[in-house]
Amino acid sequence: MSPDPGDRVGAVIEWAASMGLVTSARVLRRATRDFVALPEAKLLVRIAPARAANLARAARETAAGCLLADAAVPAERLAPGHRQPLRIGGAVATVWELVPRTTEQVTPAQLGALARRLHDATADLARRPGTARLDPFGAIRTALGDARRGGAPSASIAAVAERAGHLAGVWATAAREDPLGWAIVHGDLHAANTVPSVEGPVLVDLELAGSGPRSYDLAATAVAVRRYGAPAGDFEALLDGYGDDPRSWAGFETFCRVYELWVTAWALGQPDPDVVAEGARRAATLGDSGAHRWQLR
Fold first, then answer.
1. 125 alpha-carbon distance from chain centroid
2. To the nearest 10°, the Cα dihedral for 163, 166, 170, 171?
3. N vs C: which end of the chain shows fewer Cβ within 10 Å?
4. pLDDT exceeds 70 at position 1
5. Burial class (CB in 10 A: 0-12, 13-18, 19+), 246
6. Which domains does the chain have, with CATH numbers?
7. Predicted model pTM
8. 186 and 213 Cβ atoms separated by less than 8 Å
9. For residues 261 and 11, which has the higher predicted lDDT (pLDDT)?
10. DSSP states of 21-51 as a string?
């Protein structure tokens, strides 16, 4: 059995001690996986139960980290000296260099410019044999597996699964036809998945990253305006920073619907009952084209 969340944090501390590292630790986030900072060692550990889906996610994340390092993209870097992913206390973990954070906020324009830099720097890598493909539906299935284990409402899980079945075909067509082309895309590109550093924004949380249609990375901000009540100007600023506008292409709406489905499945799979309740509310309103506002959690 995988250790419970408290034991996983303790396992990180024990692992750090065994490596000769300073053992003070700070829990940054507890969700389907724990984020544990080792500030004095300048490391961040992401650790999750040792299930096949989590191992696959960790492998995707580490592969993306290596690709982005090779392409000199501003993204978190894997901690050197460790063969990753690794097992810590019976759980699966990845270890990263801790990015020093400033007090500034990443603006939509900066996020757009960062997306453009990511995509331009990795366009040649997108078709390289062996490069993992962006797979939002695989991520949705994994989240729904977490939701089932956590006891999320079965009707909500079924609604997401049914909608995923309907969207899979149109997603495949849109992904092939994206007029902006393909690159390595982040897959969940919003300000909370960046760190403001003294050298500018840095991409983090690479668990969904892979080769895919560029326009998909712009969908998260469009959904934030539609669903979370973000200012419409945020999306305009993102597009200004990016330098292209996919809205005249019908496939972009498909990408927005798929992203909405992902954030709904993600919420249903979290251990926090309030977040699960928000996921159920999202599942009930997926087809309303943004008429209902969602809570940002």
1. 20
2. 40
3. N
4. no
5. buried
6. 5-97 (3.30.200.20), 108-288 (3.90.1200.10)
7. 0.94
8. no
9. 261
10. -----EEEEESSSEEEEEGGGTEEEEEE---
